[in-house]
Design a protein that fits this description.
Elements (H helix, E strand, L loop, with lengths): L19 H12 L2 E7 L3 H9 L10 E2 L10 E5 L7 H10 L5 E5 L1 H5 L21 E3 L6 H16 L38
Parallel strand pairs: 1-2, 1-3, 3-4, 4-5
Helix pairs in contact: 1-5, 2-5
């Protein structure tokens, strides 16, 4: 599978004429000041909390946990089972984050539905509703796995080019979905006949 370079977000008016050292400084600043918005839905959220505590301490990597809300966050960590009912909320919160924004899918449930993949109400991976930068496997993954995922994301940020014009569209086929597209009836209406 060939990797496709997609357009990245515009950082400012002078980004096209900024010298390379300035671009390096901008990438460095984005790399080591990630404000995290944790969208914890199940047991993986506990492992996220463990990664932010003193033993693992991902703050030393330049990651600030527990942003006040999505409008102050650079990084969304989706951890746990995303149900079809919760999918519009995940998309809505992602849309509220300012560019450039990044997503880590943390755990098997978030990556692909996990052990609940065949359930009628489970979204088959958060990447079907928002673009994902890094996948962290496991059920639940250990805190060290999240640290590795953060380091992998920081490596990707360090190599981003700021001179590309346009908005980042990382979806397969550059598809974007509105929150309203992700809703469906929870219970099908009765087909014919009534109860007597």
């Amino acid at each position: 599978m060939a990797q496709v370079d997609l357009p990245l977000p515009r950082v400012g008016l002078g980004q096209d004429i900024a010298p390379t050292p300035v671009k390096v400084v901008l990438n460095w600043g984005r790399r080591y000041s990630l404000w995290v918005f944790n969208f914890g839905l199940a047991c993986c959220a506990i492992e996220f909390i463990a990664a932010s505590m003193a033993r693992h301490d991902f703050i030393r990597l330049g990651v600030i946990p527990f942003a006040p809300g999505p409008r102050q966050a650079d990084l969304m960590v989706v951890s746990g089972t995303v149900t079809d009912k919760m999918a519009p909320a995940v998309r809505r919160l992602y849309d509220q984050m300012p560019e450039p924004k990044y997503v880590i899918s943390f755990g098997a449930c978030s990556n692909s539905g996990g052990p609940y993949w065949d359930s009628y109400c489970v979204t088959k991976g958060v990447d079907s509703i928002i673009p994902v930068d890094v996948y962290v496997p496991g059920c639940p993954p250990r805190p060290e796995s999240l640290l590795q995922g953060i380091i992998r994301l920081q490596e990707k940020i360090a190599t981003e080019s700021l001179s590309t014009k346009g908005i980042r569209a990382k979806y397969a086929g550059h598809r974007t979905a509105a929150s309203a597209e992700l809703t469906r009836d929870l219970i099908a209406p009765p087909s014919g006949g009534g109860v007597s």
